[in-house]
Structure formats: C-alpha cells, structure tokens
Write a structure and sequence with these properties.
Number of helices: 15
Largest sheet: 6 strands, mixed
Number of strands: 28
Strand content: 25-35%
Distance between the termini: 16 Å
Strand order of the largest sheet: 7-2-1-11-21-20
Radius of gyration: 24 Å
Shape: globular
C-alpha cells in the first residue's frame, strides 16, 4: 500500500477526515487538484453540532481565537424569515464567524501537525478498485503516478469526479435562483436609523431583515461592532456560473438595483460571494472501497448547513475506516456510515427544502405561510425543536438493538464529571478520539468486562449530577453506543455492544498495549518524508 486511505479533495471535509485518521494512527494521503487554496469567499462560518465535536477534540478554542468577529447572537435566517433563539435559556444552535478560507487553513495546519500528506496540484484522473484495494491514477506537477490504498474517499465537492467514476447516482433538483452576498459599508448619502433600518435615496426606508419585491429578495443586517453591513439578494435566474469566478462589485450592485429598483450606494466592499441552490443526495455513500463525504454526497438548498454536515461525515467515517485498516472492525461497521450519515443528511434536506417553500413564494398565500411559521416560533417548545433541527442535535442514529436504552444513538452532551483527581468533562475524555466506557455509578462488574477491550477503548469512572445512566459507552464521534439502565444488570448487553462496535477479542488481543496517539515526528518518519 502507498497509504492507508486516499482522500480526494482538500476542502474542510477532506482535511477533517485526514486529521481524524491520523489521530487514530492511520496514514492518509490528500489529493487536491488546485495548486493553491481558493481566495473566493465561500461559507462565512460554522454552526450546529460540529462546534461541540470540535470542543470534544480540543480544537474549539483554537478556532474561536481565529474568528474575525465576535460570537453573534443566536438569530438565524430560515427561508426568508428569521429564527430568533435569544428567547431560549439554552440553545443547541450557535455560530462561529470563521470564513471558510481561514477554516481550511486551520484544518490543514491541524492535519499537517498530525502527519497527513497533503498534495496540492494533484488531479485524480481515474479510480479503480478490487477486493482488497482502491487505486487512484493521478496527474501531478512531475507527471502521472498511481496511489494504492485500502480505501479511497471522495471529498471533492458538488461536481465530484470520484462519484462520477464510481457510478454513484446523484439525483435531485436545481432551483432556478442565484444568491449573492456582500459585506459592505454604505456612502454618506444613506442614513442609518436607530432601529437598524436604512433610508436609501431613491427608494426610501429599507428595514433590517428581508425585503421582498416583484423582482426578488433583498436581505440586510448590521454588525453589532462596526459599520459593516451584510447585504444579500436572491433572483430567479437560470444562468450557470463557474464557482471559480468570483462575484464582482459591479455584479452585486446590478443585482441590488434589479431587486430594489434603485441604486444602493456602496462605499467599500469586504466580502463578495455567489451561490446557487441544489437539493441532491447520493443514492449510496459507499461503493465497495470507495466512499463519499461532504458535498460529494449531498447538496442542500439553504445556507449554513453544508459545513456542519460534511465535517460530521468525516468524524463518523474516520474511526470506522481506522477499524478496518487496523484489522479489528466487526462485520458491517463501515455500512453504518451510509446508514447513519444518510439519515442525518435526509433530516437536513427536510428542513432546507422547507426553507425553499418558505422563501420562494411571493403571493399573499406565501406571505401568510411565513407569518404563521413565525407565530409558531413565539412558543418555547416549537422554537426549541426548530433549534435542534437546524443544529442537527436531534439526530438519533439507528441502534442495532430495538430494545436498547433510549439514549443509544444520541449525541452525548458535555457533562461535567467529578473524579478523585478533580473536575473534568466528557469533552476532555474524547480529545484523543478514542472510544470511552464512562462508569457513572462505580460499577466494577461493567469495568471488568470492558477491560477485555482496553486496547481499543478508554475506561473512566466519574460522578455527575443527575446521571442519565449507570454507564455509557461513547463512540469516538460522541454518540452513545450503549447505556446501562440505572440499578439493573447490564453485563451481557455491554459485552454485546462492545463486540458490535469494537470487534471481538481474545486473550491475545486483550493484552496488547494501548496504541499511542502519533506525534508529528513519528508521522513524518512513517510517511517517509
């Protein structure tokens, strides 16, 4: 093997997958066709469940330190209206204002520190597979070559070459609309009112939020700390745009003029981006030894969700690939990647397509629908449910046993934990990305069983306020693989769960030393650099 896993695409999903694999001790080779990262602005930040996952990996503070703006209040656009979560005491949905270019830089640095081999300017020409390997034919700066691995993962975006070569259908809908976004300051001729609205010469008052006209949608919001405004347009348009060609100031101003019917005086521009909306979903995420993740697997017709979905794909997939590469994977483990992440993407598709219905109508009936929707969100219970839906925290992966504990398959919140050595948290236990048996009731019987798997999982004992179960078996992606009902026998079910998720063991395997997390020096030596 030239490497363990070939990853095609050095966007956020591919880089996150490379880092997770290296953290698990698996060699990864990342191939990116572009010689340099794109300067074209894309996503403006991260939001949802992935923020907690980054906390669990010990990366969140590093990412927060790189943010370009203060953490915004939890108010989010949703289909041409706003979902205001500031009324909730606790909300699962937060946003991190981190532009995608900076996010990719941070993920690239993180993967590189762990020893991932990232090659830019290397285009994949063909992929093939047999019963034991996947092979990429590559064109690089020094000519063509082959790379053979146990698995190959296409993280190469909406127009995925890997998906095409694997023959995986990508059905869906293309919506005839173009969306343009800019961060600007306005000229002195525009009056900023105390309530956040603008008085624009030739048009009149434009309220903060969304303004609908017969020609499209105009959105506007102000930064709480500066004079910078975010402005947004949506127009019915069937033009095909090349994503590599950036949006110009003239194009943005022309779009605003068409929608509002008046000039919008712009003084300075800080960010420009253009995007279209598609709802597409790969029929399968796996074809033998070839897999898909991120935009190669799913495209959603709304903003703010693609990065969350793609990065969570990577975390779900990495530990399962590592299990196969290292030879201990139980039967069917890799198939759960398709089952679980396609379920999550289907849920995301549900609410993003609902947003299409909310935003695209311009008649009185559509306006009535938006009004009723907003009225429903004045009550706490539907608002909390909507927050979980947008964040992706309402996902429960299908449990292998239908009679299992209700927590099985859910994402474990970051519980505060009290131990003999002091206070810690769930996040601290998952920094290394290893499975964890967390004993919350001093169950020596359960710890004794788990010790047969101590070369694959970590075992911790702690107490927590209002503990939800006597013990929890936590997967590397933070989801609960098994839970022990309080004060009930659970040894048999624990042994079954350990075997289901982390393979069978015998006397030889159970006494192997615990593998250490690779250092940068070890990774460099292993990659022959």
């Amino acid at each position: 093997m030239d490497t363990d896993v070939v990853i095609v695409g050095a966007g956020p999903t591919g880089l996150m997958l490379a880092a997770e694999l290296r953290s698990a001790g698996v060699r990864s080779l990342v191939l990116e066709r572009r010689p340099q990262p794109l300067d074209t602005p894309k996503a403006g930040g991260l939001g949802g469940q992935i923020l907690e996952l980054l906390r669990y990996r010990g990366l969140l503070k590093r990412f927060e330190a790189a943010c370009t703006e203060p953490m915004p209040a939890p108010r989010f656009p949703f289909g041409g209206v706003h979902v205001d979560l500031t009324h909730l005491n606790e909300t699962p949905m937060h946003a991190l204002p981190l532009p995608q270019q900076r996010l990719e830089q941070l993920l690239g640095e993180h993967a590189g520190e762990l020893g991932a081999d990232i090659r830019r300017g290397h285009r994949v020409l063909d992929v093939t597979q047999d019963a034991d390997t996947a092979t990429a034919q590559i064109s690089g700066p020094d000519g063509t070559y082959r790379a053979t691995a146990h698995y190959l993962v296409g993280c190469d975006g909406a127009h995925s070459r890997v998906r095409e070569l694997a023959g995986i259908p990508f059905p869906g809908t293309v919506y005839p609309e173009v969306n343009r976004l800019a961060q600007i300051t306005v000229s002195d001729s525009v009056t900023r009112l105390d309530n956040g609205d603008l008085e624009v010469p030739g048009f009149g008052a434009i309220r903060a939020g969304f303004t609908r006209t017969e020609r499209g949608l105009f959105g506007m919001g102000a930064s709480p700390t500066s004079d910078v405004l975010s402005v947004y347009t949506t127009e019915e348009e069937t033009t095909e745009y090349d994503d590599d060609i950036p949006l110009s100031v003239a194009e943005m101003q022309a779009s605003i003029r068409r929608v509002l019917g008046a000039n919008f005086p712009v003084a300075q521009t800080y960010r420009l981006s253009r995007f279209t909306f598609k709802a597409r979903h790969a029929e399968r995420y796996r074809d033998g030894r070839i897999l898909l993740a991120g935009d190669a697997a799913h495209l959603f017709p709304a903003t703010g969700v693609a990065l969350n979905a793609g990065l969570l794909d990577a975390v779900n997939l990495a530990w399962k690939l590592a299990a196969y590469v290292q030879g201990w994977a139980p039967d069917g483990l890799l198939d759960t990647y398709h089952d679980e992440r396609r379920l999550a993407a289907t849920r995301t598709m549900l609410h993003t397509q609902a947003q299409v219905a909310l935003r695209r109508g311009h008649d009185p009936a559509a306006e009535a629908l938006r009004q009723v929707f907003q009225e429903l969100l004045t009550d706490e219970q539907p608002l909390q449910r909507m927050a979980a839906l947008i964040a992706g925290t309402d996902i429960r992966y299908p449990p292998p046993n239908p009679n299992c504990h209700p927590l099985t398959g859910t994402f474990l919140p970051n519980l505060a934990l009290h131990t003999d050595d002091g206070t810690t948290s769930v996040a601290e236990l998952l920094h290394d990305g290893r499975p964890v048996l967390l004993d919350l009731a001093d169950r020596t019987d359960l710890r004794d069983i788990a010790r047969d798997w101590q070369h694959r999982i970590d075992i911790h004992t702690a107490k927590t306020d209002n503990h939800p179960a006597d013990a929890l078996l936590i997967r590397p992606d933070g989801h609960i693989a098994w839970a022990a009902t309080i004060d009930e026998p659970a040894g048999t079910s624990l042994r079954a769960a350990l075997s289901t998720w982390f393979g069978t063991v015998d006397e030889t395997t159970s006494t192997r030393p615990v593998p250490s997390r690779p250092t940068s020096e070890q990774s460099i030596q292993r990659n022959g650099l």
